[in-house]
Each structure stands twice: as structure tokens, then as C-alpha cells.
């Protein structure tokens, strides 16, 4: 395979990795927002008394919900979100590693192309 084709292929792979990284970063940001929102809800639940009423929105309807069930649901959601954050973090590290490998491959190909270009004799002018 020629160096130009290798360079084009490696560049394409690197761009795909950059797109994957962007998607993973976006997913991480969404999870951070969800985590913050659910932690805020959990703090609000800490201020509730047994006399308070909690409602859960299901579509356009508010349905009365037991406080203990609501707290449990939020705790479960927090655990799930934290697990997803860990998964996305490992995905980000994996993509970063692949990007670094591909970046090094690109540098090596470009260096080889430059060396070959420098070794070619200059065209003579008559």
C-alpha cells in the first residue's frame, strides 16, 4: 500500500475517533447534568416531613407517590447514572489511547513521506 493511501486511511480513522470522542464527551456532559439534577432532588427529599406529599409526573398527569418509594427511585437513578459515568469515562480513556496511537501513526507516515521527498533528486532545468 502506498504511503499516500496509508496517510489517507489513517487520517480517516483519526477523524472517526475524533467524532467518537465528541459523542462520548457529549454523553458525559448529559450524565453530569442528570447527576446534578438527581442530587438536587435527593437534597430536597432530605427536607421532607411525613406530612409532605410527593407527586410523580406521568405524562401530563401528576400521581401521588409514597415518599419512601420516591427516595428509593432517586437513589436507584443516582446509582445507574454513576455507573453510566464510569462506563463513559472508560470509553473516553480508550478513545484517547486509540487517538494517540493513530496520531503517532500519522506522524510516522508524514515523516516517511518527507524523508522520501527529500531524497528524490531535484529535477534539472536545461
TrEMBL record:
Signal peptide: none
GO cellular component, one term: prefoldin complex
GO molecular function ontology, one term from the record: unfolded protein binding
Ranges in coiled-coil conformation: 14-44, 78-119
UniProt keywords, alphabetically: Chaperone, Coiled coil
Zinc keyword on record: no
Domain of life: Eukaryota
InterPro entries found in the cross-reference section: PFD_beta-like (IPR002777), Prefoldin (IPR009053)
GO biological process, one term: protein folding
PANTHER family for this protein: PREFOLDIN SUBUNIT 6
Assigned protein family: Belongs to the prefoldin subunit beta family.
Name of the featured protein: Prefoldin beta-like protein
Species name: Macrolepiota fuliginosa MF-IS2
Amino acid at each position: 500500500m502506498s504511503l499516500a493511501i496509508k496517510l489517507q486511511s489513517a487520517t480517516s480513522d483519526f477523524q472517526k475517533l475524533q467524532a467518537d470522542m465528541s459523542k462520548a464527551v457529549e454523553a458525559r456532559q448529559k450524565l453530569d447534568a442528570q447527576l446534578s439534577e438527581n442530587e438536587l432532588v435527593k437534597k430536597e427529599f432530605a427536607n421532607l416531613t411525613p406530612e409532605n406529599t410527593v407527586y410523580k409526573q406521568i405524562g401530563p398527569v401528576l400521581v401521588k407517590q409514597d415518599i419512601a418509594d420516591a427516595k428509593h427511585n432517586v437513589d436507584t437513578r443516582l446509582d445507574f447514572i454513576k455507573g453510566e459515568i464510569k462506563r463513559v469515562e472508560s470509553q473516553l480513556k480508550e478513545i484517547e489511547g486509540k487517538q494517540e496511537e493513530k496520531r503517532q501513526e500519522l506522524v510516522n507516515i508524514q515523516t516517511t513521506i518527507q524523508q522520501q521527498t527529500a531524497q528524490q533528486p531535484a529535477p534539472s532545468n536545461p
